[in-house]
Amino acid sequence: MCKIKANFLTLQIKARLFMIHTIAFDMGGVVFEIDKQRAIRHFAEIGVTQAASLLDDFQQVGIFGELESGAITDEQFRASLSDIAGKPLTWEQCQYGWLGYYKQLHQYSLDGLMDLRRRGYRLCLLSNTNPYMMSWVRSSEFDGHGNGIDRYFDALYLSYEMGVMKPDRRIFEMVLEREGVAPGEMLFIDDSAHNTGVAAELGINTLQPANGADWREPLNNLLQTLNHDE
User: What is the mean pLDDT of residues 5-33?
Assistant: First the structure.
């Protein structure tokens, strides 16, 4: 009888070891809805007429990728983009181009983030992004209530600061190390199958909502499955 009880307790402890403690969110497409075509129009308005061939939905390439991976600074990007446009561009014009990706921040997203924090989850942002976008995202203009995105997260992991972009497995390994959690203790939410695929290969639990979708119910259902006693 004692042996059976001991085995049951051991199983309970092992299950507890892999409960979800940390939830990592992608930004564009999950925290807020994005629109690539709008970004193309914004860049075209400042003179980058070939923006359609330069921009990507998930992982940027060329000077756009170099900016988001931290290989070049925002000033170096501005100079290079000015060469592409054939005229000098200001920092503000470059930001206008990037902010074209932003379509809408749904209140349900903000409500969902705050609810998760109240329930004791540690929330992290894990985003391929750049200084132009983050200058606005971290400002008081972000949520319409005078708050930047820092209000909603415990930690921000930004590609241009980390020197690597999703879906490179190194960025996930860096987040796991800095958070001090095992892969099974983290849940990663991203609208890109490439990103969730690499995370899953590392043993991280994943959820892939559509761009701009309300992820609260599927996330809560998944947490109930993974944590059993939610």
Answer: 69
pLDDT tens profile 114-127:
999 999 999 999 99
Which residue do the tokens 């109240």 mark?
Answer: 118
Which range of residues forms the domain containing residue 75?
A: 36-101
Query: Which tokens hold the place of 62?
Result: 């060329």
Burial degree of 134 (CB within 10 A; 0-12, 13-18, 19+) = buried
Catalytic residue among 26, 35, 143, 191: 26
Phi, psi dihedrals of residue 225, rounded to the nearest 5°: -65, -45
Cβ atoms of 126 and 167 within 8 Å: the answer is no
Question: What is the radius of gyration, based on Cα positions, of the chain?
Answer: 20
Q: Is 190 a catalytic residue?
A: no
Query: What CATH code is carried by the domain that includes residue 164?
Result: 3.40.50.1000
